[in-house]
Please model this.
Amino acid sequence: MDEAISGEVFVCRGCGDAIDSCEFCDGEDCPNAICYGCVIIDIGQEIPEPHTHGG
Ligand SMILES: [Zn+2]
Ligand SMILES: [Zn+2]
Model:
């Protein structure tokens, strides 16, 4: 069996899941790689909830 891994395997800084590349900046050499699921959460925390004006 060939266990040769092409490229490095990143670990999500959010949940610790193994990912091929950073889903946030799509960088394969990102020091803070993060998975897609955590990107949504991370962005959701930064962006305030949209308040509907009017009524
Ligand atoms: Zn994650
Ligand atoms: Zn990144």
The chain has a mean pLDDT of 80. Helices lie at 36-46.
